From TrEMBL:
Stretches assigned to coiled coil: 125-166
Keyword tags: Coiled coil
Top-level taxon: Bacteria
Alphabetical list of InterPro entries matching this protein: Metal_resp_DNA-bind_regulator, Tscrpt_reg_PadR_N, WH-like_DNA-bd_sf, WH_DNA-bd_sf
Residue stretches making up the Transcription regulator PadR N-terminal domain: 12-94
Pfam families reported in the protein's UniProt record: PadR
Region (Disordered): 182-214
Protein's name in the database: Helix-turn-helix transcriptional regulator
Species, as recorded: Actinacidiphila acididurans
Taxonomic lineage of the native organism: Bacteria, Bacillati, Actinomycetota, Actinomycetes, Kitasatosporales
PANTHER family: CONSERVED PROTEIN, PADR-FAMILY TRANSCRIPTIONAL REGULATOR
Length: 214
């Protein structure tokens, strides 16, 4: 399984844990609520759903399509609704408990952060601290690279490098704030409890508005 398909499976299981959905609803939620999945298409989603059904983590149910008017010949079209099974819920909880290095990477971290409301505090802390450590390593490498190549870069390339560093620095500051909030146990200020946080999570997949891609 590729890392990208693994992230998609994680997100699908997480969304279906909230409520059963049909494919169109799932794709809409992936694209709008979890911005990191905007590049995913039906061509990616449906093979993923079939795989999860085959593994016993989802079941397919038929439901009438209320948006499609019935005709005398065809009747009302049925939709396939996907529902999380008990085994699927258990598997998703196992995935939520994972806090290893892959949970710190760019896309996987965004997906994990989107489901922090369902994640235990100790796992949230490990993921946040791991992500911060990963970005601090990235920032150190970027600074070292810039120091070596500064004299050979034109003004525009140099500005692009600086912009990337500033984006990573902003995310490190953001992570520091989240970690301090978690440590202080200020549950009323947790990410996702305020309107601004919800809007940011939905539009950016749980990431700060600007981030480095290096």
């Amino acid at each position: 399984m590729s890392k990208r398909s693994g992230i998609l499976e994680f997100a699908v299981l997480g969304l279906l844990r909230e409520s059963p959905m049909h494919g169109y609803e799932l794709r809409k939620r992936l694209n709008t609520s979890l911005g990191v999945f905007r590049a995913f298409s039906y061509g990616s989603l449906y093979p993923c759903l079939k795989t999860l059904v085959a593994q016993g983590w989802l079941i397919e149910e038929t439901a009438p399509d209320s948006d499609s008017p019935a005709t005398p010949l065809a009747g009302r079209r049925a939709k396939i609704v996907y529902r999380l099974t008990a085994a699927g819920k258990e598997h998703f909880e196992e995935l939520l408990a994972h806090s290893g290095p892959d949970a710190w990477e760019d896309e996987h971290f965004a997906a994990r952060f989107a489901f922090f409301g369902q994640t235990s505090k100790d796992v949230r802390m490990r993921v946040l601290e791991g992500r911060r450590s990963r970005l601090e390593e990235r920032l150190e490498k970027m600074r070292a690279s810039l120091a070596r190549t500064r004299e050979r870069l034109d003004d525009y390339t140099l500005e692009l490098q600086r912009h990337g560093m500033e984006s990573v620095e902003r995310e490190v500051r953001w992570l520091n704030e989240l970690i301090e909030t978690e440590r202080a146990g200020r549950t009323d200020n947790r990410p996702g409890t305020g309107r601004a946080d919800n809007d940011n999570n939905q539009e950016n997949g749980g990431r700060p508005e600007s981030r480095g891609t290096a």
